[in-house]
Predict the 3D structure of the following.
Amino acid sequence: MEKLAGTITLLTGWRRALVAFLAGAVLALALAPVDVFAAGFLAFPVLVWLLDGAVPSPSAGFLSARLPAFRTGWMFGFGYFLAGFWWIGAAILVDAANFAWALPLAVLGLPAVLAVFFGLACGLAHFGWHDGPARIFALAAAFTGVEMVRAVVLTGFPWNALGYTLANNPVFLQTAALIGVDGMAATAVLAFAAPALLTGRHGRSLGLALPVLVIGAMAAWGLARPSVQPLATDAQTLTVRLVQPSIDQSQKWDDAAKDAIFATLMRLTADAAPMAGPAGDAAPSRPDVVIWPETALPFLLEERPQALAMIGEALEDGQTLLTGAVRVEGGTGTEVRFYNALLAIDDEGAVTGAADKLHLVPFGEYLPLREWLEPLGLREIAVTPGVFSAGVNATPITLAGGTMIMPLICYEAIFPAAVRQAAQKADLLVNVTNDAWYGATPGPYQHFRQAQLRAVENGLPLLRVGNNGLSAVVDPYGRVAGGLALNAVAHSDVQVRLQRITTPYSQFGQWMPLGLVVLTMLLHSVLAWITHRAMRRY
C-alpha cells in the first residue's frame, strides 16, 4: 500500500489528471441508485495522496502555491460530477431538433462548473496541509464549508452534495437529523479519507480507528433514533392518493394529446380500487387528498374553465385535489405572468389555495442573462405557455381540517436550508415533480434520495408524486412506503401520520454543519501541533 501511495503522490501531468478524474468517477458509485458507499474508501485516499504530491514551484506566491491542489481537486470533481450527472443530457434530447447542439455544454459544461467547488475545497485544505492526520481534518472542514456555499451561490445547485455518498441506507440517513446533509460531508471525508493515513509514519492508528468511530457513531444513532424519538400510534392520519400518470415528456404540451392526458389523470383519480397502504396500516378506502404531479394539467385553466367543474364532479364530498399547474396572473392591460404552481381544488371545483415555485431551473424554466443570451438564439428548454416568473415567498396550503402542507415543486426539495425554513410552517411536506425529462437514468433516483433526506432533516413526513416516479410516502425516519415504480401508470393510496419529530437540524439549521467546520478545524490544529512535536524527536 505504501508503494501505491508513493506512486500516486509522484504522478505528474496527464497521468495525475487522469487518476484524479477516475477517483472522482469511482466516488460517484456511492450515489443513488448504485449506492456502493464503499467506493468512497477507494476514491478519497487517492485524492489525499494526490494532494500530498501537489507541490508548487519554489517561486510560487501565497495563492498561486495552491493552484496544484486546485487543479487536482477540479479533476477529481469533474470525474465525480460527470459520472454522477451525465444523465442531464437526456433532458436536452427530449427536443433534440432544437437543443442537440447544447448536449456537450450540458453533459460536460455543468460538471466542469461544479468541479470548481471541489477545486476550491482542495485549494483551501492545502493552506493547512501537514504530514500526518491533520490533513484529513483540513480536507473535511474545507469540503463541508464549500458544499454549504455551493447550495447558495448563484441561486445554488447542491445536487449530489457530498453527504449523499453516506446516505445509502435508512440507518445512515438518520445522521441528517443531527447535522443535515452538509454536515454529512464532514463525516464522509473523515471516514473515507482516513485509510490514506495507513501509509505514513504518523497517524496509522487513527487511520484504522477513524472510519470505525465515524461509521459506528452514525450506525449507533441511526439504530437508536426510532426508539429514542418514536412515532405516536395515535397521531392524526391523512389518507392520500398519489397519482402517477407517466406522461411522455414529448406529449406534455402537445395540443393533440391534452385530452388524453387529462382523461388519464381523471381515471386514476376516480379509480375505486384502493392500492396497498404503508406497512402496518390498513389500505385506505377513500382518500382525503388526491395529488397530481408537477404541471400535471396539460392546459391553462383559463383556456378550459370547464375542467374545474369536471374535477369537482370527480371528487367526493370533502376531498381535495392538489395538482401541479401553470398559474396565470395579470392580463387585459397588465403584464401577464406565468408561475409553476401547486393548486388546491375542492369538491366544488373551486381553487382554494396556490403556491408558486420559488427556485426556477436555470436554462430549463428561465434564461439567465436573457437580454444577452436571447439575441444569440438561446431559450429555455421547457416548453411553457410563457416565460416563468419565480414566486416570492414559501406559501403553505391549508387543507380541510386545518392540516398545513408545504409544497416543494420539483428541485426545490434539494435545498436543505430553504426547505428547513419553509418546513417550520407545515405539518407535511409535499414534493411534486416531473422527472420524465431524464428517462430511465439515475436522475429520478438521485432526486428522490434528496427529497427523502429533507423528511429526515426536518422530522416531517413527506409525500412525493412524480409524473413518471418515483412516487411514495416518506416518514420522518426516511422510511419509504406506498411506492410506485419508475414509469408505472398507477396510483397508490397511503395513510400518513401527521407527526413532527423535533430534530437538532430543524432547530439549528446550518449552524450544525458550520459547527462541524469549526470543530474539524480545531482538531486539525491540535493534530498538527502533536505531529510537529513528534517529528521534532526524529
User: Anything to note?
Assistant: The chain has two domains: 2-228+508-535, 237-500.
